[in-house]
Design goal:
Order of helices and strands: HEEEEEEEEEEEEEEEEEHEEEEH
Structural class: alpha+beta
Strand content: 25-35%
Radius of gyration: 32 Å
Number of helices: 3
Shape: elongated
């Protein structure tokens, strides 16, 4: 009779079986790593594209909002193009043309610069008319109203045919409708240094209240960062603020209405990189030309944050041609300072383009 228990034979893995298992595991690991690498690359590319989309949208929004405000407070069309004489701390400043917006073209294909000027007055203020002749040596204006004016407001005096003058209110005395612009303010020159026209201003000239004069500039620095430069009129210094990064290029053009005669509707019929003789009087850049500047066309090229790996044998081929816009080509093969950027084809680019009306000029017509 056989015993109830039997010996059970136990066998282990052979060396061949172990090696086959290791090979299968290694192959599986390689496949998994390849899939993960491809997925991670696609994810980074998608994330980079999303970042470029956000950068472009935010940058365009900020610039467009500022440009739409250009010319606020310049309620008299004759004021446009006026030469502003000013002094600060006893030093005469370079003469500046009163323009709601100015585009400075970058050398060659480099990014452009956009300068925006407007009144920074946050409360309501109307232009005031001078009621008594203002000699060049006087330190007060007699006017028809001080409505909305406050001490430290920046004022610009305007009379057709004369240069404009920038002064700051130092006092608004009771009992007389007048304002003082004495040398206690650094914007008002001391005696002997005259920024007024030789004969001063006549009764009927106009004072425009700009409050704290708003002067903003947008440009792309050598590190491809969009920079906002802001003038502080309290001390006549400029501060800079980084708006966004990875801006490969920024280009802008003026939009003019060059149709003859007085227009009841504003229509852009000419786009130009520079100021032109829009009013046909034979002079470029005067007030008549600025009055016909009714829009700008703006384009931003945003570079992705991720550099795509070059393909074997052919190198970078993600981008094969420079981005374009209605005004031409956006050169992304160089840094904003003009230095060559040899790896530009290893990146992806998104182009943002818009037309921004200069509503304060249009409304002034």
């Amino acid at each position: 009779m056989q015993p109830l228990t039997s010996k059970m034979k136990q066998n282990g893995f052979s060396l061949v079986e172990i090696m086959i298992g290791m090979v299968i595991s290694l192959i599986s690991m390689v496949i998994i790593l390849q899939i993960f690498t491809a997925f991670e690359g696609q994810k980074r590319t998608s994330t980079s594209g999303s970042d470029a989309q956000s950068i472009g949208t935010i940058s365009m929004f900020n610039i467009e909002r500022d440009v739409r405000n250009a010319g606020y407070g310049m309620t008299d069309q004759g004021l446009l193009g006026c030469k502003i004489n000013a002094s600060f701390n006893g030093t005469l400043l370079p003469t500046q043309t009163l323009m709601p917006l100015q585009i400075t073209q970058g050398a060659g294909t480099r990014p452009d610069r956009i300068d925006v000027m407007a009144s920074g007055k946050t409360s309501f203020s109307i232009p005031a008319r001078i009621t008594v002749d203002h000699p060049a040596s006087a330190t007060n204006f007699f006017i028809n109203s001080t409505q909305g004016m406050q001490v430290n407001d920046i004022m610009i005096a305007y009379q057709p045919g004369l240069d404009c003058t920038l002064v700051q209110i130092t006092g608004i005395p009771n009992g007389n409708v007048q304002i003082h612009h004495q040398s206690t303010s650094p914007w008002n020159p001391p005696g002997g240094q005259n920024i007024f026209p030789p004969g001063g201003y006549s009764a009927g000239a106009i004072l425009f209240n700009f409050g704290a004069l708003l002067s903003h500039s947008y440009y792309v620095d050598s590190a491809n960062k969009l920079i906002l430069q802001n003038l502080n009129t309290s001390n006549n210094t400029s501060s800079t603020q980084e708006m966004n990064s990875d801006v490969a290029n920024m280009q802008a053009q003026y939009g003019f209405d060059t149709r003859a005669g007085t227009q009841s509707t504003a229509i852009v019929d000419t786009w130009s990189d520079t100021l032109i003789d829009a009013d046909g009087d034979g002079t470029v850049g005067n007030g008549g030309d600025i009055q016909r500047m009714i829009a700008i066309r703006l384009a931003l090229s945003i570079r992705s944050t991720r550099k795509e790996p070059p393909a074997p044998a052919i190198g970078c081929n993600i981008t094969t041609a420079a981005p374009t816009w209605a005004g031409g080509t956006l050169d992304v093969s160089k840094y904003p300072d003009g230095k060559s950027f040899p790896d530009w084809k290893c990146y992806r680019y998104k182009t943002f383009e818009t037309i921004i009306p200069l509503r304060n000029i249009i409304w002034g017509q």
